[in-house]
Specification:
The protein is α/β, with parallel strands linked by helices. It folds into two domains: about 10-295, Up-down Bundle (Cytochrome Bc1 Complex, Chain C), CATH 1.20.810; about 305-534, no CATH class. About 50% of the residues lie in helices and about 5% in strands. It contains 16 helices and eight strands. Strands 6-5-7-8 form a four-stranded parallel sheet, with helices on both faces. Strands 1-4 form a two-stranded antiparallel ribbon. Strands 2-3 form a two-stranded antiparallel ribbon. The two termini are about 20 Å apart. It binds protoporphyrin IX containing FE and iron/sulfur cluster (SF4) (2 copies). One iron/sulfur cluster binds near residues 308, 360 and 362.
Length: about 525
């Protein structure tokens, strides 16, 4: 079996934390699927929702800027005008701006926890995680500068604490905090700088978001339309029910006492007073460094990258299309064969999921060659070994209704025993392997057991498998394969109960089927050769 997550080392406390979180997410996601349908499960689209919320914040921010006055004196009154006489458009936009930002903090936090629980950040997959950390900083700086701009009592508090926090760095010449001691010290230029920051930092955030998804192919950056409408409707309802309002004009002659803090954006501000500036910076930098180092804590034991076998590659592009990590590209042919292109794998980007092997037209176990080779193969679990494993698994199957399981090692089927062949991803299974196993009578039925339907460990494995079986994606499952002898079960490692139930139900269904004539004929025809091949 290929090097896998099972032998990819992890520290015990981290593993336990992941298991706990994964179980929690499983419960939430099944609930969300029942409530919204699997396609609309918001947790499965949480990265896309974060993007969508960013756009809501950006559009509402641009709208607000038309009515906002950037002067220190007029800022508060222009915001009051927005929320008062103009509540029905600009006021609603203000609420959208605030609540969508808050929701973005929540969605990014859930996204981080979910990716962590799914272990989709280590080894070659470090990039998205690592580039996600600065996004948290940019998101917070955007929110904090936004609160500051309103210039109400909360803004005054934010300004005073932020200035004290920044003053420990001797980069500003004179202490910033001095700006907020008395009204006379308040500088309009400094306020303009804030406005600039509140526009520039979200733009940097957007650039960071674009960089964040550069190493994954077909990233989902838009939630399904219905989900987007539901989010907009929820924001509108909250905006009308509890409009975002200011907390009285800033007054530097008074110390703000009773403040309604935004606990999503400003949860650590009260700590600045109890821990001091150094303490808070220590916490922020410490947590950021720890998070940034996580993909290497501990180092991931990675399996060898996929390899192209030129004599079997015709440059058809299918592997390029299917690789979820942008690890393959087509390059000009180098071996003089009459094809314009050949596939080339970037070992630094390859996570050894095997999906490319499943997509290559040369990956067919029917080929009558002893040394079975394909256009692109996983050195840790080559196609030739896969065919042998399937034949060996068939020998383990006993009884009337022999069910072979082709399982993703990240799902419940990966823990099954007897007649099971595991893969780093179910999409590594070329559809012709199922045809092979059934037509050679190696099994009466095949279960393709993937990981969670809404949380595929290799991002696109579940989707590609479904499309190949439905005949909507090459290489598709041939029509002659009896569909009633094939079942797919999508179940996370913690859904073994449901996996067993679905497998038993499939076995029971098999009992009602007549064995098809071609299956037996083919089996008889191939028996001598299979025996010869061992
Ligand atoms: C503004 C904030 C963020 C946005 C908009 C965002 C958005 C996204 C999107 C759209 C994807 C692709 C999902 C897919 O189609 O598979 C993604 C993947 C990912 N993100 Fe984020 N993200 C953000 C912050 C973060 C943070 C803070 C972290 C963690 C520190 C993080 C870690 C990851 C990881 C590990 C992946 C998966 C990469 C893989 O599958 O190999 N993201 N993100
Ligand atoms: S094994 Fe193939 S599909 Fe998977 S990451 Fe590597 S090149 Fe891409
Ligand atoms: S799918 Fe196979 S034949 Fe097609 S480009 Fe990739 S390696 Fe070559």
């Amino acid at each position: 079996m290929a090097a896998s997550r099972k032998n990819a080392n992890d520290w015990l406390p981290l593993r336990l934390l992941k298991i706990g979180l994964r179980r929690g997410f499983d419960v939430l996601e099944r609930g969300a699927e029942r409530l919204f349908s699997p396609a609309l499960n918001p947790l499965a689209q949480i990265g896309a929702i974060s993007f969508f919320l960013f756009w809501i914040v950006a559009v509402s921010g641009i709208y607000l800027f038309i009515f906002f006055d950037t002067g220190i004196v007029d800022a508060y009154s222009s915001v009051e005008w927005i929320s008062g006489p103009q509540w029905y458009h600009a006021g609603v936009m203000r609420s959208f701006h605030r609540y969508a930002s808050d929701l973005m903090v929540v969605s990014v936090a859930v996204h981080l926890l979910r990716e962590f629980s799914l272990d989709r950040y280590r080894g070659t997959r470090w990039f998205s995680w690592f580039t996600g950390i600065p996004l948290i900083w940019f998101l917070y700086i955007s929110g904090i500068t936004g609160y500051w701009l309103v210039w109400d009592m909360l803004a005054q508090y934010v300004a005073q604490v932020s200035a004290k926090l920044l003053d420990i760095f001797p980069v500003f010449g004179e202490p910033l905090a001095r700006n907020f001691l008395t009204p006379e010290h308040l500088s309009s230029r400094f306020f303009s700088l804030l406005v600039f920051l509140h526009i520039a930092v979200p733009l940097i955030l957007l650039l960071g978001m674009w960089i964040h998804i550069q190493r994954i192919s077909r990233p989902k950056v838009n939630p399904p339309r219905l989900l987007a409408v539901l989010i907009l409707a929820a924001l509108l309802a909250v905006s009308l029910w509890k409009p975002a309002l200011s907390q009285g004009p800033a007054d530097l002659t008074r110390v703000p006492v009773e403040l309604g803090l935004d606990w999503l954006f400003l949860p650590l501000y009260p700590l600045a007073e109890t821990w001091g500036e150094w303490g808070l910076w220590g916490l922020l930098v410490g947590v950021s460094v720890m998070l940034a180092a996580m993909p290497w804590l501990p180092p991931f034991r990675r399996a060898p990258a996929a390899e192209v076998d030129l004599p079997n590659c015709n440059g058809c592009n299918r592997c390029v299309e299917d690789c979820p990590y942008e690890a393959i590209r087509l390059v000009p042919r180098t071996d003089g064969e009459p094809f314009p292109h050949q596939a080339e794998v970037s070992a630094d980007l390859c996570v050894s999921c095997g999906i490319c092997m499943g997509s290559c037209p040369s990956s067919t176990p029917f080929r009558r060659v002893q040394d079975l080779k394909t256009g692109i193969d996983l050195p840790g679990q080559p196609l030739s070994e896969v065919r042998e494993s399937v034949i060996a698994a068939a020998a383990e199957l006993k009884g009337e209704h022999r069910v072979m399981v082709l399982a993703c090692e990240h799902g419940a089927g990966g823990a099954d025993i007897g007649g099971v062949v595991t893969f780093p991803c179910v999409a590594m299974v070329p559809p012709s392997l199922i045809d092979f196993a059934l037509s050679k009578n190696l099994a009466d039925g095949i279960v393709v057991a993937g990981c969670s339907e809404s949380a595929c460990y290799n991002r696109l494995g579940v989707e590609w498998t479904k499309q190949r079986f439905a005949g909507a994606r090459d290489p598709y499952l041939r029509k002659r394969v009896p569909r009633d002898r094939l079942a797919t079960i999508w179940a996370s490692p913690f859904e073994s109960g449901r996996y067993e139930t679905e497998k038993e139900a499939f076995t029971a269904r098999l009992a009602t089927l007549e064995r098809t004539a071609p299956t037996l004929m083919q089996a008889e025809e191939d028996k001598p050769r299979l025996e010869a091949e061992g």
